[in-house]
Design goal:
This protein is mainly α and 267 residues long. It is built from 11 helices and no strands. Helix 10 crosses helix 11. It is globular.
């Protein structure tokens, strides 16, 4: 008897297996729709962070004398810009997660958290697809990869928890407060400069080091960067960021569960 997943009917699968199967189908649909009419396809997922990194590299290395970050600066930038694009893109899309798919959400019985998690997963896949570009720049500019690269999966797990938590918090609230969509965009714009992307936490004044750790992205970015710059690893920021990522996930699940029925009526 063939027991492979593909030959098992949906009714015979466990609830978790059905959840992951539906999540993967919707994620794959999103990626196909996003790139089916695009001539460049995959390259669009890396073009935006590359352009941003190029602009900041030019400003801080060619126009002004750079006194932040590490060398090579382009690798320093990309190691935080790529995960930032994942977080920023997923949270931005989550503000429209229910409004954009209202008819489909009302007509299906799959768990509604999938409509948020599919955005986190699709943006995460784009992030993973862009990692070879980061490695290429590291090789070209001579950034050495060290054993701290083993913390890369930990950074990904923490970012999944944080991004999913924020998405589950934002998605239902936007249904009731439409102005929240614009507010989230402003908050993300502020968070970009408040996060150690074009600089590191070590470049901040000493009295801000403690408070910077309460931006969960600080610890996550330090894990990513430690693969090339081991001195960037800040375990205090990682610990605080881990706790906050879990807290955001718990809060997001709580708000989502309490508002789910009201959301279905509203949309």
């Amino acid at each position: 008897m063939n027991s492979s997943f593909a030959t098992v009917s949906p009714q015979q699968r466990s609830p978790l297996a059905r959840y992951w199967h539906s999540l993967w189908l919707l994620t794959r649909r999103d990626l196909r729709v996003r790139y089916s009419t695009s001539a460049l396809g995959y390259f669009w997922s890396i073009l935006d962070p590359l352009v941003m990194a190029g602009i900041y590299w030019f400003v801080f290395t060619q126009v002004f004398e750079r006194d932040v970050g590490e060398s090579p600066y382009i690798v320093f930038l990309l190691s935080a810009l790529l995960p930032w694009m994942w977080f920023n893109g997923a949270v931005s899309d989550c503000t429209r997660a229910f409004l954009r798919e209202a008819k489909l959400i009302r007509s299906t019985r799959i768990p509604r958290t999938i409509w948020v998690n599919r955005l986190v997963l699709s943006k995460g896949i784009e992030f993973l697809a862009a990692i070879p570009v980061l490695v290429l720049f590291a090789v070209v500019y001579g950034a050495e990869i060290n054993l701290d690269i083993l913390f890369f999966p930990l950074a990904i797990v923490l970012q999944v928890l944080l991004t999913a938590g924020v998405g589950l918090l934002v998605a239902p609230l936007v249904v009731f407060f439409r102005d929240l969509e614009r507010a989230v965009k402003l908050i993300l714009r502020f968070l970009f400069y408040a996060s150690p992307i074009i600089y590191s936490t070590a470049d901040l004044p000493p009295d801000l080091h403690f408070w910077a750790a309460f931006n969960p992205l600080s610890g996550i970015f330090s894990l990513y960067r430690s693969a090339f710059f081991p001195e960037q690893l800040d375990w205090f920021a990682v610990g605080v960021g881990s706790a906050m990522s879990v807290a955001f996930l718990v809060l997001g699940l709580f708000v989502f569960s309490r508002t789910e029925r009201a959301v279905l009526k509203e949309i």
